Structure formats: C-alpha cells, structure tokens
Predict the 3D structure of the following.
Amino acid sequence: MSMSETGAGAAARRGRRILYLSKHFGYPLGGVRIAHHHVAMLNRNGFDARIVLVDNNRDSFFEEDIPYDVLGPSFALKAGDIFVIPEPWGDQLKKLERFDVRRLMFCQNHFYLYHGLGPRKSFEDRGLHGVFSCSEVIADYIKRTFQVADVPIIHNGIDHTRFRPAQKKRQIALMPRKMRIEANFIVETFQRTHPQLADVPVVVIDGMTEGETAEILAESAVFLAMSRLEGFGLPPIEAMASGCIVVGFMGDGGRSYATEDNGIWCGAEDWFAAADGLAAAIRAFDGDGGDSKVRHGLETASHYTLERMERDVVSFWTREITR
C-alpha cells in the first residue's frame, strides 16, 4: 500500500532524513522488527528514512530490503536530520545532545524508559524534542507520569499473510526468552499436575526467524505467553492471528488487547494458574478446537495490521517532518 503524494509535500519528505537508531542484538527482538517496519513504510511513501546501526552488524532475522547506514566516524550529519532513539539508549542520547538535529524518542517499553532518561526530570531536560509510542499503555503512563499532553501512538501491526492458522497439532508453543526459569517451571508443573496430558509436545521458539516462528504458531493448538515487562507484547497477537488458544501473562503492555474472551490470562507470578490454564486450553482444543477463544483471538489480532500501522506512520511523520 502506498500513500505517497506529489508536489510540495513530497519535496518536504525527501528534504529531511528520518534516522532510526538500531543495533544487532543476536536474537530477534520485537522492537527492532517494528523499527524495520517503520522505515520500510516510510520509504514506500516518499520519505527518506533508514536504519542507522551503532554496531555495523545487520540483523539477519528480518527480510526487508531497506536503507541502512552506520553511525561511525564517516557518518555525516545533515541539516534537518531527525534521529529516532530507543527509550533505553542514554549513551546515544548524550552523544547526540551537542548536535543541531531533531531528536525524538520512540518508546516501545515504558519499563526501560529511565535507562535513557536517567536522573533527568523531563524529556526536554534530556535534549529530546518529542516522544511517541506504540501502545495505549505506554502513552497513558507517560502522560500521567510526565504530564505530557500529546504522546502519539503508532500502533503495532503484524503480517497477517504470514501469521495465520494452518492444520493444528495438539501441541503447545512458547517463547521463553524473558522468563526462561518460569517457563520451565510452568511446563513441569503442568505435566506433573495433569499427568494425563503430559504427552502433549511443547515446542520452544527461541532464536528463530520470523518465518520459522510463524510456521510453529500456525500448527500449534496452544501458545503459552511468557510476557514480562512489556510495552505491548507482540507474540500473543501473532499467536492469536495464528489461531492459537493463548494462555499466560500480559506483562502489563498486554492490557492493550487482553480480555477474558481472547485468552486464558493469569495474574503475575500465578504459576499454578498458568499450568492449569494450559490443561484447560488443551481440553478445549480436544473438545471444539477452543472455538470461542480462537474466534475472539482472531478478531483481536485483526485490528493489528500492517495497513493500520502504515496509516499511523504516514500520519505521524507527515506532521513531524514540517516541525
């Protein structure tokens, strides 16, 4: 989908660079994925946008062919540059403070916000010209805590041509990266307290590409959401779009979309509830395929599309580019 325009608006877009700072973490990270999406969408719509790496290592987990630069000695700043800095990157904020460029924070996780702000009392004190976010939970936190009137939201989206249901297997999928000890504890508890279901396979998604992840979710009946300290939490939405019965934790950010209809959600650190939730989900799948949870999950996920994200991206940057 392209929303590009001609004339003065298009010329203004080409006249300023939008530079999303990023790095290679060695594993697929949702925040990096979203930044890649933003840059791809901006370029499709006539903006001069790129990923600017701080470590010279390109991510191998994401397949989009988008412009890259490296923030090294040879990188030349241009008048009108706009830097987009992740919320925990205090060192990069400090380095950019002395340059006459526009600096925006893209906050994808309010729990990491103070790693970037440090002891500064406001975004302005940190040399930032604005902040935008990816979820209502984050925006509400910033408004309430910093008395910021306007925190624009660019809603996250997923590729629904990739994340979609396939022929389901009687298996549980999980991504344990943020809660490895807890994930193992929950699975062991589930298998020991529900021995009649202990033969249900558990498939761990760890360090896989987006395509590999989508394949596992598509065929899995149940997804164990190990969300912790999230600003949004993409995996449960990907699982809902893939037709999984979602069991587990919201990680706070999941409050943007989690309801009693679209998942079996547990209170924080209620490990027994998660283990029992897995059993309930498998029994529901054995019954009617978990029809109600799956239907509501698919409906929830349908709101988080790349098309809506692109509309949000273009709307936000069309305003921002003229400031």
Observations:
- The mean pLDDT is 92.
- The CA atoms of residues 120 and 126 lie 6 Å apart.
- The chain is about 40% helix and 15% strand.
